[in-house]
Amino acid sequence: MLALGFATTAVVAILGVLALALWSSPSLGESSTALARIELPPFAGSFEFASAYGPSGQAIPLADHNGLLVPEAKLAPGEIVTVDVVVRRPGWLSWALGSVRREQLTIRAPVAHVTKPWLTRVPGAPLRVSFDQPVAAAATLSAGQLVAQRLTRGGLELNPGAAAGSIQIRAAARSWERLGRPSYVTWFPPSRAPVLVARPATSATLLPTAAIRLTFSRPVADVLGSAMPRLLPAAAGSWHEPDSHTLVFTPAGTGFPLASTLQVVLPRDVVGQPAAGSTEPTKVIDYAVAGGSTLRLQQLLAGLGYLPVDWAPTGDPIALTADAEVAAAVDPPAGAFSWLYPKTPSALEALWHPGASNTITKGAVMMFEHDHGLAVDGIAGPEVWHTLLGAAIARQRHAAPYSYVYVHALVPESLTLWSAGHVVLRSPGNTGIPESPTQHGTFAVFEHIPVGTMRGTNPDGSHYDDPGIRYISYFNGGDAIHEFPRGSYGTPQSLGCVELPLAAAAKVWPYTPVGTLVTVEN
Question: Following CA atoms 63, 64, 69, 73 in sequence, which dihedral angle do they give, to the nearest 10 degrees?
Answer without folding.
Answer: -10
